[in-house]
Design goal:
244 residues, binds NADPH dihydro-nicotinamide-adenine-dinucleotide phosphate, 47% helix, 7-stranded parallel beta sheet
Length: 244
């Protein structure tokens, strides 16, 4: 489905990003893992993708909050590997707290990673997408950005921002055949959610189960493939019906 395409996935050493990397590799894409710290784990995954799926995979260390690092990483990837076809803005963090006790640094850290990081990578990749008149941008939002969740003023704001960014970019780039969509997961079992009171949440999920990383990766594959060529500016929930 993605043969000979190159996908750059941020925050792909673990969790949802790693599942998206594996799903796209299974479907023939070469995978660039872009991550902030865990180089060993990222390299292990890249080696696994190459040996199991016969694709090329590379690791670039980059902090998505840093505009210049994003620009440099995209330049290096383009020089080393060639054109980028798919950009998945998956890197994200939480710093949960009630607004009364939330610190300025907790607010800033989440906005910088989740929203500005997404902008930085789109900015770094969009000239190439426009030149080649093709591209798929997939941004990880959250149901928290749609309905707002208590304890997540920073995170909800950042993920709502990702939705606005997705729609603006979709409109700007649509004329050049570049699609930009957002995925809004509900509660997916990863390190990010491992300390949450999941029994509480289960009661409010109509499908009565937490999501798996595969559930999100399946949608990312669809949005990266030609099956979604006429879909742009869309926000699709993967939440078992939670935010209906
Ligand atoms: P994880 O915490 O499991 O993984 C996050 C990844 O992002 C890690 O690989 C981490 O790197 C990387 N990362 C963090 N900060 C940066 C940075 N500044 N630059 C580059 N990489 C960075 O998260 P999930 O897999 O659970 O979440 C993935 C995305 O999905 C996030 O955007 C999240 O907000 C979103 N999401 C997740 C939900 C869930 O229930 N899990 C629900 C809704 C949305 P390292 O390993 O080096 O720390």
């Amino acid at each position: 489905m993605l043969k000979d395409k190159t996908a750059v996935i941020t925050g792909a050493s673990r969790g949802i990003g790693a599942a998206i990397a594996e799903k796209m590799a299974q479907n023939g894409a070469n995978i660039v893992i872009l991550d902030i710290g865990n180089e060993d784990q990222a390299t292990l995954l890249a080696n696994k993708l190459e040996s199991e799926y016969g694709v090329k995979s590379a690791v670039y260390m980059c902090n998505v909050t840093d505009f210049e690092q994003c620009k440099a990483a995209v330049t290096a990837i383009t020089n080393d590997i060639g054109k980028i076809d798919i950009l998945v803005n998956n890197a994200g963090i939480t710093r949960d707290n009630l607004v009364l006790t939330m610190s300025e640094s907790e607010f800033d850290a989440v906005m910088d990673t989740n929203l500005k990081g997404t902008f930085n990578m789109i900015k770094a990749c969009s000239r190439g997408f426009l030149r080649q008149k093709s591209g798929k941008i997939i941004n990880l939002s959250s149901i928290s950005g749609i309905i707002g969740l208590p304890g997540q003023a920073n995170y909800s704001a950042s993920k709502a921002g990702v939705i606005g960014l997705t729609k603006a970019v979709a409109k700007e780039l649509a004329g050049k055949n570049v699609c930009c969509n957002a995925i809004a997961p509900g509660f997916i079992q990863t390190d990010m959610t491992k300390n949450l009171p999941t029994d509480e949440y289960l009661k409010s999920i109509p499908m009565k189960r937490l999501g798996q990383t595969q559930d999100v990766a399946n949608l990312a594959l669809f949005l990266a493939s030609e099956l979604s060529d006429y879909i742009t500016g869309e926000v699709i929930r993967v939440d078992g019906g939670l935010a209906m």
